[in-house]
Amino acid sequence: MNFSRLVFVVASISTLIGCSGGGGGGGSSLSTSFNISGSVTGATGVTINLTGASSVSATTDGNGNYNFTGLPNGKYTVTPTSSGNTFTPISTVVTGNGTSINVSALTASSAITTNCLSGTLSGAALQNIMVSLNGANYGAVLTDSSGNYSFCGLVNGNYTVTPSLSGYSFPLLATITISNASSLANNFVSTIAPSSSTLSFLPSTTIPQATTGSTYSNSVIGSTTGGSPPYFYRSDSFATGAPPLGMIVDLNGNLTGTPSVAGTYTVGLCAVDQVGSSSCGTATVKVVQATITGTWSGSFVWPGAAYIGCTSTPINVTLSLLHTGNNITGYWGTAALLGTVSNHTLTMTQTSTIFGTGSSQSWTWDGQNTITASVGYGCYDLSTLAVQQHDYYGVTLTRQ
Length: 400
Fold this sequence. Notes:
This protein has strands at residues 2-9, 33-41, 47-52, 56-59, 65-72, 74-81, 85-88, 92-96, 101-102, 106-110, 115-123, 130-135, 139-142, 148-154, 157-164, 168-169, 176-178, 188-192, 199-203, 210-211, 216-219, 221-226, 232-235, 247-249, 254-257, 263-272, 278-288, 294-302, 313-324, 327-332, 335-342, 345-350, 361-365, 370-381, 387-399. It is mainly beta and 400 residues long. The protein folds into 2 domains: 33-288, Immunoglobulins (Immunoglobulin-like); 291-399, Porin, CATH 2.40.160.
């Protein structure tokens, strides 16, 4: 007797610079010192490089923590490196003045990318100019003594680059696209800015909450007065807070993008006028996990073969889910399901024999109306268990 067995497996698929001050010369080395500490999530044994007022490196411990002590006051770029990983933010700029600084956590994710975005600043100022990167990833660096800057390990996507130094003006670059290649010679010429009245910027105190997986765009501007209009906006130092993953602050003062991780975020924001004066503040935005509740359906054709029971058969997939907290329950037909939700990954730990037994399954949800699955099928002889035909098909389930 021959019969067909269907096994269901779901394959999981896989924004900021600080308000800067001081001249364009080298970092200061004062009599007092300070400490820099922080942590990295998502990877161990990460090398943390400090450059600026002095250069030193350290490796994160087993808990992902690092600590630099007795550093001379001044400006520093904090850059994490680890083979096979990219980081968010790519780098961070901090300024020490006798007070210890705890840098917001750096997040590692598996990616092998060699794309860089680089350039040179020339003109009235060269060194210690803070350059901010926004876009598909984000970060901040200080220019070296020759005015050079670079960001490496970039994923494909669109980026903007903004230099900033109090008392100096810089032109704005258009959007830069990284597509499997580096982008070089993104250069700026700095000029001494005329003096202006005091610039005052207050971020909005009522930023609407965002939802994971959903496109978001809201102004973060409360009020901007003084200085020399027109104004543009940017993120502040990544050292003390960053936008939610997947979001940036654009030049018009909007927090935009598609957040991917739920949480409460403190976002540093700055207004900059046409003569380079800056005023900065912070705002809080809450990102909530989207609700994975409803019924999804889809279909695929089970291929036929020259064996009894291995005929071309349409398979209709209906999946109902109920999301409560971090748990999810539901049904595939009459089969009861149980699992957990972490961001957009649904890990089903209790399934019926329809799906096979003894292992959990990862289902990928786009945060809105789609669940992606890889459906495996197989026909085998009941007596000998000889496999007659087997393969996998991608299936997209759509919320009804």
